[in-house]
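User: Design a sequence. Structure:
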């Protein structure tokens, strides 16, 4: 059994549902310490954050990952226990196999091999792991990045092992992410009998025209290397359950995924303007998950593209699609950041999996990119 497969199996077997790390980072820290890495714990609240470094000074190359996973759902929906790694027909199954314990295992093996081959390498190789990527992402990499900014600790290059690939390993390279802005809206009405609407105020009826305007709006036509900004209502609820009662309020949640043509503040202002124009009595609470980020053409994108071509024989698509990742906290430190990892077709689903052949190719891929930048 290969080193990366064995470590991936060990990590999957730990029930590390956000924010519980379940010993994953301790296991990684022990291995990296044996390889000569300096271990620093940057925990915050219930979240574990591991910062492991080898070398000092020079360019800092960070391998960024998370050890937490989303809940697996009902056990009976899986063909095998989600926390008992299983191999079938050349595929490794288990929660986190693709997102992203497989990549974490590949980071560790790549780092061990790199320092064994280049014990006196220039620059600094680092691994940053958190147990708060799949959750609120408050006390994880967001907190670490804030601390690094305050202390003047740089990161120059960063790969996060999020499952970026579509149909084959390395066919897509994420070079940025859209921003994410969420709102929780409560439209206030007056409860009453449906037969006497003049004595009530229906918050659903009042909210619908404003929501229709927000939903129908084309917010922009895109931005260089970014898709158009999107607005989506994700949850809406109102009423008492009775069909003869006008509800007293209507609550809903929505989200913007936005490109650099907007700031979160601008979008908030636009939404308030629409709600106010429709005369709504409302409360609106915002959560800014992150601003858009983009790594332009530079050493990291060039190195990743070259290594993918040499080792995998393909030219990756380079885009900024998908959801959010912890890359959004590292990029503002001035780092060049790309996302490169396994196929994402099964992430967050039952029977999550990764092809063992592709998992076993990841360490060499990561190591080669590190070598191109730290040894150049």
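Assistant: Done.
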């Amino acid at each position: 059994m290969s080193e990366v497969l064995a470590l991936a199996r060990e990590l999957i077997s730990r029930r590390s549902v956000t924010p519980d790390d379940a010993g994953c980072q301790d296991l990684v820290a022990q291995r990296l310490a044996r390889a000569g890495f300096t271990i620093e714990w940057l925990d915050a609240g219930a979240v574990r954050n591991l910062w492991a470094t080898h070398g000092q000074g020079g360019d800092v190359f960070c391998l960024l990952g998370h050890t937490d996973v989303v809940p697996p759902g009902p056990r009976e929906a899986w063909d095998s226990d989600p926390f008992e790694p299983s191999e079938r027909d050349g595929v490794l199954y288990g929660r986190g196999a693709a997102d992203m314990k497989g990549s974490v295992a590949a980071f560790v093996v790549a780092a061990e091999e790199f320092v064994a081959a280049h014990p006196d390498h220039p620059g600094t190789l680092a691994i940053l792991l958190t147990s708060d990527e799949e959750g609120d992402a408050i006390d994880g990499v967001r907190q670490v990045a804030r601390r690094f900014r305050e202390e003047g600790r740089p990161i120059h290059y960063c790969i996060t092992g999020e499952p970026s690939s579509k149909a084959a390993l390395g066919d897509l390279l994420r070079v940025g992410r859209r921003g994410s802005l969420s709102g929780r809206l409560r439209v206030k009405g007056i409860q009453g009998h449906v037969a006497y609407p003049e004595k009530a105020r229906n918050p659903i009826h009042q909210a619908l025209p404003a929501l229709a305007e927000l939903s129908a709006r084309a917010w922009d036509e895109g931005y260089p290397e970014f898709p158009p900004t999107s607005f989506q209502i994700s949850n809406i609820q109102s009423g008492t359950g009775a069909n003869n009662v006008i509800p007293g309020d209507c609550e809903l949640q929505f989200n913007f995924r936005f490109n650099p043509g907007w700031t979160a503040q601008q979008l908030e202002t636009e939404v308030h303007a629409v709600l106010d124009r429709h005369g709504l009595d409302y409360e609106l609470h915002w959560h800014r998950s992150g601003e858009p980020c983009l790594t332009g053409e530079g050493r990291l994108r060039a190195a990743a593209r070259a290594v993918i071509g040499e080792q995998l024989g393909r030219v990756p698509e380079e885009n900024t699609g998908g959801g959010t990742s912890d890359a959004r906290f590292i990029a503002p430190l001035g780092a060049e950041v790309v996302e490169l990892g396994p196929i994402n077709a099964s992430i967050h689903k039952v029977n999550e999996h990764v092809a063992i052949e592709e998992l076993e190719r990841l360490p060499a891929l990561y190591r080669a990119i590190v070598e191109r930048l730290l040894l150049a």
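The radius of gyration is 23 Å. The mean pLDDT is 96.
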